[in-house]
Write a structure and sequence with these properties.
The two termini are about 20 Å apart. Helix content is about 25%, strand content about 25%. It has about 500 residues and is an alpha+beta fold. It folds into two domains: about 15-275, Glutamine Phosphoribosylpyrophosphate, subunit 1, domain 1, CATH 3.60.20; about 300-470, Rossmann fold (3-Layer(aba) Sandwich). The radius of gyration is 23 Å and the shape is globular. The protein has helices at about 30-40, 70-75, 75-80, 130-135, 145-155, 170-180, 285-290, 300-315, 330-340, 365-375, 380, 400-410, 445-455, 465-470, 485-490; strands spanning about 15-20, 50-55, 65-70, 85-95, 110, 115-120, 185-190, 195-200, 205-210, 230-235, 245-250, 255-260, 265-270, 280, 295, 300, 320-325, 350, 375, 385-390, 415-420, 460, 485. The chain has a seven-stranded antiparallel β-sheet, with helices on one face. Strands 5-6-7-8-12-13 form a six-stranded antiparallel β-sheet, covered by helices on one side. A four-stranded parallel β-sheet has the order 17-20-21-22, with helices on both faces. Helix 4 (about 130-135) crosses helix 5, helix 8 crosses helix 9 (about 330-340) and helix 8 (about 300-315) runs antiparallel to helix 14 (about 465-470). Mean pLDDT is about 90; it is low at about 1-10. A hairpin with a 2-residue loop joins strand 12 and strand 13 (about 265-270). It binds 1-O-pyrophosphono-5-O-phosphono-alpha-D-ribofuranose, glutamine (GLN), iron/sulfur cluster and magnesium ion. Iron/sulfur cluster binds near residues 432 and 485.
Length: about 500
């Protein structure tokens, strides 16, 4: 909730982990690698960030730096100096549960029977309230409003079969996973291991990269399979690998627990989905949240967005002189629309690069002002032109109205809005703070009314089928892929229990 008491559509957090491999002549600078990794994930969370590191020898010895703000503001050389270790995890946050304040800043650290554990979480527990009651009734106090703290506390209790041979973290993680089906991608650090965990539905992304000696080269993993790793990393998105000189290794599978140690990467368990149904990977990661250079399910997000634009041109054609984008995230879809329709792609809006993403402004008033400050019209390109204007999504409708006004005022003859995703009508309970039903403009107006409201000549959305087809086209094993489309259809991947 913001100060006006309204829920906002926010992005998902970014999580990152790194382990240096043993016997390296020049050891990997793990704190710097993690901070670079988090910069690459900055688009997923801009409220606060934190890094925890250790040498993995003493279960009570860790160093941590956390703060409010952007990664580069928090991790300056002086603060990176404070981080010691050859293994660590990091987080960059957008709050979905618990206020945006330093107490809720991640990674969370708690002391367990076996020493300290640190946890960074992306997602939102669908049954957080129930689990919170469970934790509290077992006599454990909670000090924050964050569901990620609930995860950390649940991991600090022994699994039902006990631990006759010492701490069994995979068993503890599996036990947690049977208590909550979604939504979480986690990095859990204890002593000398980072566990990378993806919930059984695979709702949030998580992938592994191999750090190679030197920087700059990014060979395909098949080309560098024989090269010795300098370290291993795990990240919400592969876009963060490029800055580190790491190559993409593989995704963490839905329900999988992978251990990263100085000896390498090992799958240490998998929790099946209860009904053996398909995964429910968030389709909005493709539409808006992920960076276009990220690989999801073996395909580049940019390519999928382009295909959505092509599909949209096919489903909702219109006679026009040019196709354009509402920058940034809609640009690949606009390219796709242009290719499929044969109408040239021309830029009509100039974006102020110092203005952030509008969704995430802390209040409605600021969001509206934000839109006005964010765009200028490229008048020479649009005078007397019939424009097809592509956006990736319409949520509250704050962005589109002022833009159409600006374009018309600047001389556009017609503005036809084409949206590269279906109408957003239902809330998300899995890690994205989509506004309430009442605030979502698609619940108040159909396409015709929206066109009138925005002052546009027409509005058309992509169909749910069209979006799913565009996403599935590039997935190799189509039979195994499944996506959550709950905010578009109202059908949730699991029963909602509070
Ligand atoms: O209907 P609304 O409530 O206005 O929200 C929809 C807009 O918000 C997002 O852009 P945003 O400015 O967040 O980021 P971007 O620059 O990555 O496109 C999205 O891409 C749409 O343009
Ligand atoms: N966006 C997220 O993934 C948030 C994680 C967690 N629920 C929090 O609010 O901190
Ligand atoms: S409801 Fe929408 S935003 Fe939430 S996980 Fe599902 S597809 Fe993603
Ligand atoms: Mg946008």
């Amino acid at each position: 909730m913001n100060e006006e008491g309204e829920l906002e559509l926010r992005e998902a957090c970014g999580i990152f982990g790194c382990v240096a491999t043993k016997n390296q002549q020049v050891p990997l600078d793990v704190p710097t690698v993690i901070s670079l990794g988090l910069v690459g994930l900055q688009h997923r969370g801009q409220e606060s960030a934190g890094i925890v590191t250790t040498y993995g020898k003493d279960v009570y010895q860790i160093s941590k730096v956390k703060g409010m703000g952007l990664v580069n503001q928090i991790f300056k050389p002086e603060s990176l100096e404070k981080l010691k270790g050859n293994i660590g995890i990091g987080h960059t946050r957008y709050s979905t549960a618990g206020a945006s304040q330093i107490d809720n800043c991640q990674p969370f650290i708690v002391e367990t029977m076996h020493g300290l554990i640190s946890v960074a979480h992306n997602g939102e527990l669908i049954n957080a309230k129930k689990l919170k009651r469970k934790v509290l009734s077992s006599g454990i106090g909670l000090s924050t409003g964050s569901d990620s703290e609930v995860i950390t506390q649940l991991l600090s209790s022994s699994p039902p079969n006990g631990e006759p041979n010492g701490p069994d973290w995979p068993a503890r993680i599996k036990w947690l996973m049977t208590k909550t089906p979604t939504s979480y991608s986690l990095v859990v650090m204890h002593k000398d291991v980072v566990y990378a965990v993806r919930d059984p539905l695979g709702n949030r992304p998580l992938c592994i990269g191999k750090v190679l000696p030197g920087t700059g080269s990014l060979p395909n993993i098949n080309e560098c399979a024989d090269q010795e790793a300098h370290g291993w990393i795990v990240s919400s998105e592969s876009c963060s690998f490029q800055a580190i000189g790491a190559s993409y290794y593989r995704e963490v599978e839905p329900g999988e627990i992978v251990a990263l140690t100085e000896s390498g990467v090992k799958s240490v368990g998998i929790v099946e989905r209860p009904d053996n149904g398909l995964p429910a990977f968030c389709i909005f990661e493709y539409v808006y949240f992920s960076r276009p250079d990220t690989l999801l399910e073996g395909q580049m997000v940019y390519t999928v967005r382009k295909r959505c634009g092509m599909m949209l041109a096919h489903e909702a054609p219109v006679a026009a002189d040019l196709v354009s984008t509402v920058p940034e995230s809609a640009t690949p879809a606009a390219m796709g629309f242009s290719i499929e329709s044969g109408i040239p792609y021309v830029e009509v809006l100039c974006k102020n690069r110092y203005e952030g993403r509008t969704f995430i402004q802390p209040s409605s008033r600021l969001r509206q002002l934000g839109v006005a400050k964010k765009f200028g019209a490229l008048t020479d390109n649009l005078k007397n032109q019939r424009i097809v204007l592509i956006d990736d999504s319409i949520v509250r409708g704050n962005t589109m109205g002022p833009i159409v006004k600006l374009l018309k005022k600047s001389g556009a003859k017609e503005v036809h809005i084409r949206v590269a995703s279906p109408p957003l009508k239902h809330p998300c309970y899995m890690g994205i703070n989509i506004p309430t039903r009442e605030e979502l403009i698609a619940n108040k107006m159909d396409e015709e009314l929206l066109a009138y409201h925005f002052g546009a000549d027409s509005v058309r959305y992509l169909s749910v089928d069209g979006l799913q087809t565009a996403v599935k086209e590039g997935i190799k094993d189509k039979g195994k892929a499944g996506h959550c489309v709950a905010c578009l259809t109202g059908t949730y991947p699991v029963k909602l229990e509070w």
